[in-house]
Amino acid sequence: xxxxxxxxxxxxxxxxxxxxxxxxxxxxxxxxxxxxxxxxxxxxxxxxxxxxxxxxxxxxxxxxxxxxxxxxxxxxxxxxxxxxxxxxxxxxxxxxxxxxxxxxxxxxxxxxxxxxxxxxxxxxxxxxxxxxxxxxxxxxxxxxxxxxxxxxxxxxxxxxxxxxxxxxxxxxxxxxxxxxxxxxxxxxxxxxxxxxxxxxxxxxxxxxxxxxxxxxxxxxxxxxxxxxxxxxxxxxxxxxxxxxxxxxxxxxxxxxxxxxxxxxxxxxxxxxxxxxxxxxxxxxxxxxxxxxxxxxxxxxxxxx
Length: 304
Fold this sequence. Notes:
Blueprint lengths: L1 H19 L5 H13 L12 H18 L10 H14 L5 E6 L6 H9 L4 E8 L2 H13 L4 E5 L11 E7 L8 H4 L13 H11 L1 E12 L8 H11 E8 L12 E8 L11 E4 L6 H14 L1
Helix pairs in contact: 1-2, 1-3, 2-3, 2-6, 3-5, 4-5
């Protein structure tokens, strides 16, 4: 943890320098600090650190900046949830030596890089899309510092992407309404309401860029399958794939009950050629309960 503290301290000093001088926000100051790090600036002294230690230091600085930010899209998937996704991706792709990953709402990239650091021994190609330029800049700088090659797209992720289908799509989906009604009308999951749910459209977009037989691991609102458009979503999923798991997450990791999410696993199978698995319905135990977590992981292994 000394390396984590060392790099966080230096990033924090750079960010506060920018914030206190009025040249930008704390989060913009983190960008300045990461540039110092990348350029081996004299103000930034290096120490030996693993990729995971570097990622954690960067994450701490970004989290501090996000707490100061009023932007609703400036949020980060908690590390513990990232590790659960990493475990699941590893289990679902055990027979593959090389995999392609895509996050259509990559933000700062923390979820993607957590998974990539966990997948030791696999050749991993990563792709991400994000409309927020500041978040994507942080994702790009972090990837360079972690020596994690990734292709990033600065655009509305619900627009067409120059991307071939991937093995696994993973994402902490944005929740709310999509503002472009005309473009939303091009999606099957547009729904009958005045404005389309952005998280529904992201599910359809994720399916579009996932290979046949590939998996989607998505953080979604807990009321996803009880919302007014749930019947439309069920019909779409039954045509395009198989809902394989619904994992309820511990409530204590969310600020409010309204912000709570579940993790769903979908397998793309529009040609209906794959054998069906029983749907795994499970409650993820408290992340601080080591024994319960081990039992949960064993349950997942048996299900797979």
